[in-house]
Design a protein that fits this description.
Length: about 200
């Protein structure tokens, strides 16, 4: 590995800790940062510190927020009869971008994973059950990822919630728009058949 002065080497090391950032990209980002103006670097550092210091989880839904409760939970125009359950806060952002869903959310902060020692007590399930006890919720939409842990979490939640008489649905799975059947894996194809719709 090439020799870099310690400040650059440390900056490269910091960037390489980010997900999806390899050594080459980390090096490119480090040198780009060094070429930035002092004002831009100070603003960048301030934004990093602010995001770390000022963000916390909403006490109601568990989403990342700088206010408590978050803006979604306090928005009176949102449909309070549905809760969209996701694994992480970034999933809330993805849903909000499409502007199709107008209900509430609940962020689990992970999935149940017996192989990794993650039980229902280790994720944000208790708060969800508490929300359902005295609310007008009639449907829970489970949007965990299509992984074995995501499926296990969805099944666990369904078993917990259904006895309360609340409808539990799961996001449809299947072929992506623009994809070819010949390149789809078996699980995707079986889900596409299972979730077929009348036209």
């Amino acid at each position: 590995m090439a020799y870099y002065p310690e400040p650059i080497a440390k900056l490269i090391e910091s960037y390489s800790k980010l997900p999806g950032i390899g050594q080459k990209t980390a090096t490119r980002l480090a040198f780009y940062t060094i070429g930035m103006s002092d004002d831009d670097v100070n603003a960048f550092a301030g934004n990093l510190l602010s995001a770390k210091r000022d963000l916390h989880f909403c006490s109601i839904c568990g989403n990342l927020t700088d206010t408590d409760p978050c803006n979604i939970c306090t928005d009176e125009t949102r449909d309070r009869t549905t809760i969209f359950v996701v694994e992480e806060s970034k999933d809330v952002l993805a849903m909000e971008k499409i502007r199709e869903y107008t209900g509430l959310y609940h962020v689990l902060h992970g999935t149940i994973s017996p192989m990794n020692g993650v039980s229902p007590d280790d994720i944000n399930v208790k708060t969800l059950i508490t929300r359902l006890m005295d609310s007008e919720v009639t449907e829970i939409i489970i949007a965990t990822n299509a992984t074995s842990d995501g499926e296990a979490t969805a099944m666990y939640l369904a078993r917990m919630i259904k006895p309360a008489g609340i409808k539990v649905t799961r996001l449809a799975r299947g072929l992506a728009v623009g994809s070819d059947i010949e390149y789809a894996d078996e699980v995707t194809l079986s889900k596409a058949v299972e979730n077929r719709q009348e036209i």
